[in-house]
Amino acid sequence: MIVRIATEAQYELTESDAEVLGKLDNQAVAACEAGDEEQFNETFKELIEFVRGNGQMLPEDTLESSDVIVPPPDVSFQEARAEFTGEGLIPG
Amino acid sequence: MPGLSGRMSTVIKAKISKLLDRAEDPGETLEYSYQKQIELLQNVKKGIADVVTSKKRLQLQEQKLRDQVVKLDTQARQALAAGNEDLARTALERKNVAQTELQSLDTQIGQLAQQQDQLTASEQKLRAKIEQFRSRKEVIKAQYSAAEAQVRISEAATGVGEEMADVGLAMQRALDKTENMKARADAVQELEAAGTFQDLTQIGAGEDDIDRQLKQLSSSSEVESELAKMKAELGTGPGAAGELGAGDAPAGRAAAAEQQAGPSQGPAQ
After folding, report:
1. Can you give the pTM of this predicted structure?
2. What is the interface pTM, i.e. ipTM, of the complex?
């Protein structure tokens, strides 16, 4: 599965790693909804490090589109929250 | 696949896809997307130039503040040598404020340098993809029928489109941060203009609200300890004060009088 870390790079992840990523992602959203900033920051950091550590970075000239896109590594709790309640990072 | 991805990344992916759908013009995919790619590359270059300009501006401000710190330190010493402890304390308080500001400027300059590097890397990546897209497009055109080529080139364009959306996002974030820093730098400059970092001779009648608030904010204990250190260096500790008053006072007093003359003359200007 191809995962993009927004504003960073694309990574190839195995199916089982993708499953772990999905779980971390949902944990981050849960923390967001619970208003738990500390928990969100911790989980999101773990998520980003998981992708960087377990994924294979795709070459620069690849033209594959991603299956999944995670928010930029420097996303703030407020931005992430807005993502699920309003306009968020990307208007639309 | 959808079962594997979490909610957050699904939302982001869906939004990017929507952006791409909106941008796509099936009838003109070929020329349209290539033109868009080149436009974006130029925008990224402009964005990088913006970040560099802001960085230079903060660096200039940093140099100015460094000069202020040196000047205020010298003034504090002069005031103390002249036996005017209050004036010395005020100078040290201002020095303290300037130093705190310097630290935050340092951090900001570091952040801008990071933004610059990140955008430069993004630009390179986008350039590589565009180049790849262009050569692949030619190969596809030569190998397939017009209709089939259109489909395949569309697919390749989606990959570039995603990168374009991503670089756009990176640039937006970099510029937002730069704007925030600019706003802050402007505020500091206003403080400077309002007299916060002005000559010591302007203190007194010219003191305004911001001065007083900043004074309260600055760590008084730090100021006191620096003052004590300065006194020790100058040999004007509690015991030495009397000697100074009686001894080499004339020159010092004259200097103090000169400095204190400032405020009363100030408003008349």
Report:
1. 0.68
2. 0.84
